[in-house]
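Let us begin with a simple case.
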Amino acid sequence: MPFTGKILLIDDEPHIRKYLALIARGLGAPVIIEAGDGLDALAKYHQESPQLVLLDVNMPGMDGLEILAAILAQDPKALVVMMTSLVNRQTVEECLKLGATSYIRKDTPKEAILAELSEVIRTNLTES
């Protein structure tokens, strides 16, 4: 069943947001919302109530961990998939401890990213 909900992409690099949007469209026909910084991300989360968030860990100003905490404070059931190009076990563990749904490296092949996002949606958003 295709995913037709809203996805919020949060990354300070426009080309990464474009790449993630292309991958996310492979889920079906989602509405893609983009934010390039933390304040914009929080405003768009509040306005749009997306079903899934893809969030970069490393961003200037408000970093991904701060944005994650703010989103989860607003909506404890939010589905947030953290994304980064770093390989740091401590960061992964901290994201998951704070309440991230999943964690994906940006250099993961697009088919594997799509599979992980499909699994997150299947596990968390489909009616049982």
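The second case is a distinct protein. As before, the sequence precedes its structure tokens.
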Amino acid sequence: MMVSLPEDALKLAALEPVEVDWTQSNLEFASPRTNLSPIAFFVPELLAPSGTSEARLSGSPSDGFEGFVDIDGLNTRPIFPFGSFREVETRLEIDRTIATLERFKGDIGREPMTMPGKIDFRDLDDLAFGFSVQGDDLPILRQAGLLLRSNLNVVAQKERGEEASITGEIVLQEGLFLMDTTVLTASGGGGQSAATRPPYFSVDVEPLGDWELDLAVTGDRFMRLQTPAATGVLSMDMKLSGTLREPLAVGRVEFEEGDLVFPFASFELTEGLIEMRIDDPYTPMLSLIGETRRFRYDLGIEITGSAFDPSIRFSSSPPLSSEQILLMVMAGDVPDANFNYSASQRASKIGTYLSQGLFSSGGEGGLGSRFSLVTGENLSEQGKETLEMEFKLDERFQLLGEYDEYDAWNTGLRWRILRRRAKESSESETLEVSE
């Protein structure tokens, strides 16, 4: 490295009080290909001991600098919630006052991400820049009970004299939610900190916290929900605004399919909607309607209002009071029927209910996702619960089994010969062969 200083700088060595024009200094710096492992010693929480670099730089503050910085094979430690960045390759070309990120790519969860862009550093106190972040199937959230992947097409930019902003589109996909939903509703609305209310994140690091957001966040059947209280498949259409420190999310999350689960009943959702409204973006508003059949009763449930203080209304045919329905679905207490669960059966049912969110993988393609069991829609002549079983062999064939109202066991094979589009009809025409 070679440095040429102004003549007045030499007077500083003699402790003379002079003003030095540092813009007249010249710098020439060259570093051959060097191992970056020693740098990881100073920031062990961020960098893994890996990678190499090469750099050349020359110029002066008055005329600008020229050169490049090249990094290859750099790995980071896991960065919550994204995980590790692996095999980072980047080349920064510097031309006087413009630094161009000609190449930046790395892997997140073995999926490649690119980030080309430029930085204008003519005014170090007011930088201007623009970066484009792109990647497909990136694991943007990886923590216990929550997995989420996304396609990113995002631009981070800043004009001189203005605040930085993040714009673009985030397409969510392949999500899995196994956490207890009470972690989302326990915060109690807008009175809490930004990290504990919707949309449940906050970046309080300067200067990133003041960056403005204008992002479209969408996802078609992007999340599989598997919790003790609810199961299903979700879609999302949201607009993310505000700042990284105080983000705002407005839009809706819809249940494409799903169930509200109680210890002794499961309500199939005919309508499932969670809205974040512009007049109160910190409070999710619910509109959930479900139905089921238990012990010869057709039951309905409707949940409306705030997620922090919902209104729950039950209905039934033949008519029952809300208290009777609640006892039926929560404790298995069947009104006006020659049937009741024993103490051990109740304990077993409740234990299964509480543990299903803990031990269900929630993934698709396994045996658990291909097998379904429905009990207690009716009572048999001997006062026993009816039972229906289905095992999905593939998209067209299912094995069936049932214990019916006449205390008979039946088996069969269902063959789907035509499947209508979901938007036109939620039903399929089938052919059943029973034995």
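The two ends are 88 Å apart (CA to CA). The first strand starts at residue 2 and ends at 4.
Keep these points in mind for the review questions at the end of the chapter.
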